[in-house]
Amino acid sequence: MHDRIRRTICRFFFLFLVLLPTLVVAGWSIYANSGPGVESRREGWEQRLEQLLGTRVTIGSVRPVFPGTMEFKQLELSLPGDDQPMVTIGQLQLTRGQLQRLQLENVHVDADQLEYWVDWLEQTTRQLNDDLQLRLVIKQLVFDHGPYQDSFAEVVGVLDGSDDGSQAIINLWQESSQGDPLALQLIHQPEEKGRYRWILQTGSSPLPTRLLASQLSPLSRLGTQSLFDGQLTCVRGGQPGRVELVGQFQEVDLESLSGFPASGMLAGSGQLEVRRCRVLDGACQFLDVVLRSDGGSVDTGWLQATAQRWDAMLPQGAGARQAFTDLSCHLELDGNGIRIRGREEGPGRGALLRQADRVLLAQPRVEWLSVAQLVEVLVPASQERLPATRHTARLLRAIELPHLR
Q1: 210 exposure class (CB count in 10 Å sphere: 0-12, 13-18, 19+)
Q2: pLDDT tens digits for 354-388?
Q3: Residue 150 and residue 165 in contact, taking contact as beta carbons nearer than 8 Å
Q4: Which of 19, 31, 111, 257 lies 20 to 30 Å from 401 when distance is taken between CA atoms?
Q5: What are phi and psi of 338, to 5 degrees?
Q6: 22 vs 281, which has greater pLDDT?
Q7: C-alpha–C-alpha distance, residues 66 and 51, integer Å
C-alpha cells in the first residue's frame, strides 16, 4: 500500500476515533456546566422526581459528584395548589445501581402531611422489584406541628424487595446514635393479598404521641405533650383493619382525655398504662387500661351525680371543682361488658378518687356495666339523657361489642 494512502487512513481513524469523541465530550462538558445546561439538568430532575413522588418539586441546584451519584440542594416538595411546602430538604445525594442509596440532610416535614408519606412508603415498598434494595440515611429529621417540633438526629432505613414479599425497616434515633432506636417495620407478604402490617417499637426514648395521632386520631385525646413507650401493630389493606397496642402513655392531659361529652370532668396530668388493646374495624373489642394521677381536680357536679348513680356516698364539696391527690382507675372492656375498678391494694382500696385519706369516689358496686351505663357516666351532670349528636354516635361505635351482656 502506498505511504500516502496509509497516512490518509491513519488520519481518518484518528479524526473519527480520537479527535471527534474528544471534541464531543469537551463540548458536552462545557454545555453541561454552562447556564443553559445547568438549568436543563435541574428541570429534568425536577420532572423525574415529581413523577416518582407525586408532588411538585423545586430544586435549588443539582450536580454530579461521582459517577452514578447526583447531589441536590435546597429541595422543596409541595402538593399542587399549596403555597407552603410539605417537605424541605437541605441536601440530597442519590446513588443509582442495584443497591440504590439516598442520603439526606436537614429534612423538615409538615406533620399535617405525614399521612401522605406513610401511604407513599407503603405503595413504594409494595411495588419494589425482586432483589432490589434502597438504603436511606437522614441526618436531622424534623416534624413540624405548628408551635411544636419533634426531631430525630439520625434515621437509617432499608427497603428490600424479594420473592417472599417486600419490607421496609427504619430505625430512628431521637438525640444521638447512642441507645436503642425507635424501630419501625412495614411488611408486605404475597399470601396476604394486599394487606400489610406496620410494627412500631419504641427505643430508649419515648415517642411523642402527637406523631402517632396523625394516623390514629383517638390518640390526640391524650394531649399534645403526652409520650408513648411500648409497641403498636397496625394491619391495614382490605377489611377489617386491626390495631393492637401495649405500653404506657406519660404526661396525659386529663382535661383533653375527658373531653366532650364530659367536658371539664377532670383536669391535671397522669399516666395511662395500656395492658391490652385490640381494635377491629374501628370498634374496640378488648381493652385493659389503668389511669393514674398524683394530683388534679374534678368537676364537683359530675362527681356528685356519678356517686348518686352508683349508689355510693355523696362527696361533700362547696366549690365548682374538687381537688384530688390520687386517681386510680382500672378499666376493662371485653365480651362480658365494662368493668371499672379503683385502687387495687393498700389504703383506700377500691377508691377511684381520693383527697389525702378521704375517698371522693369509690368503684361501682355493680361488677360489670353496660355500654349505656358507661356513656351515662360521661354525660355532663346538667343533662339527664344522652345527647343525640355525632360525638355520641362515635363513642358508641368505638366501644361497640359483638356479644355485650
Answers
A1: buried
A2: 998 888 888 888 777 776 677 666 665 444 555 56
A3: no
A4: 257
A5: -130, 130
A6: 281
A7: 24
Q: Is 250 contained in some domain?
A: yes
- State the Cα–Cα distance between residues 69 and 103, nearest whole angstrom: 11
Phi, psi of 76, rounded to the nearest 5 degrees: -130, 130
Give the three-class secondary structure for 343.
coil
Judge whether 331 lies within some domain.
yes
C-alpha cell at 196: 400489610
* 84 burial type by CB count under 10 A (0-12 exposed, 13-18 middle, 19+ buried): exposed
Question: Residue 398 in contact with residue 330, Cβ under 8 Å?
Answer: no
The number of domains in the chain is 1
87-113: pLDDT as tens digits = 999 999 998 876 788 999 999 999 988
Relative to beta strand 326-334, strand 283-293 is antiparallel
CA 53 – CA 121 distance, rounded (Å) = 10
CB 159: neighbour CB atoms within 10 A?
21
**Count of CB atoms within 10 A of residue 200's CB?**
22
Question: What is the DSSP code (8-state) at residue 210?
Answer: H
In a domain, 270, yes or no: yes
* Residue 404: domain span: 239-405
CB 148 within 8 A of CB 210: yes
b/e code 321-335 from CB counts within 10 Å (16+ = b): bbebebbbbbebbbe
Q: Which residues of 231-247 are buried (b: 16+ CB within 10 A; e: fewer)?
A: ebbbbbeeeeeebbbeb
Can you tell me which residue has the cell 447512642? 178
Confidence category of residue 403, pLDDT binned at 50, 70, 90:
very low
> In this structure, how many other beta carbons lie within 10 angstroms of the beta carbon of residue 272?
23
Please report whether residue 16 resides in a domain: no
User: How many other C-beta atoms can be found within 10 angstroms of the C-beta atom of residue 41?
Assistant: 18
Cβ 370 vs Cβ 337: under 8 Å: yes
**Given the C-alpha cell 430538604, which residue does it identify?**
89
Instruction: State the Cα–Cα distance between residues 151 and 134, nearest whole angstrom.
Output: 23
Strand partners, 172: 155, 182
Residue among 341, 265, 253, 320 at smallest CA distance from 298: 265
* Strand 133-145, strand 99-110: pairing: parallel
Which pLDDT score, from 0 to 100, does residue 105 have? 95
pTM: 0.80
Query: How far is the CA of 389 from the CAs of 220, 244, 259, in angstroms?
Result: 20, 28, 14
